[in-house]
Specification:
The chain is α/β, with parallel strands linked by helices. The protein contains 16 helices and 15 strands. It starts with 6 loop residues before the first strand and ends with a helix.
Length: 434
């Protein structure tokens, strides 16, 4: 190996969620954050091994053998499944703990993800890792081999004497520099899951057009990573679409925090409309009008998940939604969208401003028009989110324990989301003692 050339092993564990309050999708998804980082590692002249144990159902022992044969200098493991679910991660670090403990004792162990971003010291302590990268790690992972760690944005680490150095900054990727991913050696054919599609058959994958969101809704957990709104180049994203399509993918889910901001998204939709793929996304319905919803339908959108959160102006204001239209207009646009898109979903959050009878009446009205409306879901005060800051202040060493206990105390009797464990375990039970 050339002088200065390093080896990076990037591992997506085989995630399990037994006993967790996690309410994200349990199916495997494309680990985009690791793929982006791999591109930067290779561009910097280093070697990279990416193992997706979740899609391949590799047990830890199998991955250990592969990693040992590669003999990496750096071992990178995320603390939550794929960028799509950093906003609603499993609060516990059970899986990263197991995989860090079981792999690569000789390598520098690096944690990335929402736990590393919000509570880097606790993350290093619980997982035994040497480095926790705050914010977006796409570019900062490769920098570990070439820059003093103290000069890397968001780099928190323990030095040779065991002293911790906690960065106040966050890694932020320049999305214009995120080029089309090389997926040639990634097992995309193993992906059959089509995220948030409940009809038909096909093969799916996930991509990203834009990152971040210009709003600051109380409940949203994106402040410490993927915060500022930024777009990728339309041409780069369409190249990824073409690469996936050429390998049999016929459905693409855009993981953007908020799909539909800005004029470039309309250019993207025009390009997608020319291709033989269907798409899904999550958005705010108040970003759209009849004309742009027509364009979305023409781009073969088959799944549209819309954050409504509250059926009243007061409720949306309490959640800091900054919604610019009223409930009647929201309803009108949802119904119009359903006439062009097979699955349109409106999501609600439990809110003291909303009367249950008013919610039921609105649900019935929308469902009669084919729009699926969720039952109001409880809010988890993810450390670093506006809700956590308002409730508890700045996250500390025990932030996840505090948020988890608060959530269980609030909703143990009222009921959790119907896609969650109904008897979640305590955080200390889920994590190994450290």
């Amino acid at each position: 190996m050339a002088p200065g050339r390093k080896k990076f092993a990037l591992i997506n564990p085989d995630w399990t969620f037994d006993g967790s309050t996690y309410f994200g999708c349990h199916d495997p998804h494309v680990p985009l954050e690791l793929l982006y980082a791999r591109e930067q590692v290779r561009t910097a002249g280093h070697d990279a091994l990416l193992i997706d144990a979740h899609i391949n159902k590799y047990p830890l022992e199998c991955v250990r053998e592969k990693v040992d044969a590669f003999a990496p200098d750096y071992l990178i493991i995320p603390t939550a499944p794929t960028y799509l679910f950093w906003r609603c991660p499993p609060p516990e670090l059970r899986v990263p703990q197991e995989w860090f403990a079981g792999i690569g004792g000789y390598a520098v162990k690096v944690a990335v993800g929402p736990h590393a971003s919000a509570t880097p010291s606790a993350t290093m302590r619980k997982t035994g890792c040497d480095v926790a990268l705050r914010g977006e790690p796409d570019f900062t992972i490769a920098q570990l081999a070439s820059k003093p760690w103290a000069e890397i944005d968001g780099c928190c680490y323990r030095d040779g004497n065991g002293a911790e150095h906690i960065s106040a900054s966050l890694g932020v990727a320049d999305m214009k520099e995120v080029r089309a991913l090389d997926l040639s050696d990634y097992p995309i054919e193993s992906h059959s899951h089509r995220h948030h599609v409940f009809h038909g058959a096909g093969r799916g994958a996930e991509l990203e057009f834009a990152r971040g969101c210009p709003w600051a809704c109380t409940f949203c957990n994106k402040t410490l990573f993927r915060n500022q709104y930024r777009e990728r180049e339309v041409g780069e994203v369409l190249r990824e679409v073409d690469a996936l399509s050429s390998r049999g993918v016929d459905y693409i889910y855009f993981i953007d925090e908020i799909f539909g901001v800005g004029k470039n998204v309309l250019r993207l939709l025009e390009g997608v409309a020319e291709r033989k793929v269907t798409i899904g996304l999550q958005t705010r319905i108040d970003l759209w009008n009849e004309e742009t919803l027509d364009l979305l339908g023409n781009a073969h959108c088959v799944s549209m998940e819309c954050g409504i959160e509250s059926v009243t102006d007061a409720g949306r204001d309490a959640l800091n939604k900054n919604c610019r239209i009223d409930t009647d207009r929201l309803s009108q646009l949802l119904i119009y969208a359903k006439q062009r898109i097979p699955w349109v979903q409106a999501n609600l959050i439990l809110n003291k401003h909303d009367d249950r009878e008013v919610i039921r009446a609105w649900q019935s009205r929308l469902k009669a028009q084919g729009v699926w409306v969720s039952e109001p879901v409880p809010m988890f005060a993810y450390p670093g989110s506006p809700l956590y800051m308002q409730t508890f202040g700045v996250p500390d060493e025990h932030a996840w324990e505090r948020a988890h206990a608060h959530y269980r105390a609030q909703f143990g009797d009222k009921g959790y989301s119907d896609i969650q464990e109904q008897q979640p375990a305590e955080l200390a039970t889920l994590e190994r003692a450290v």
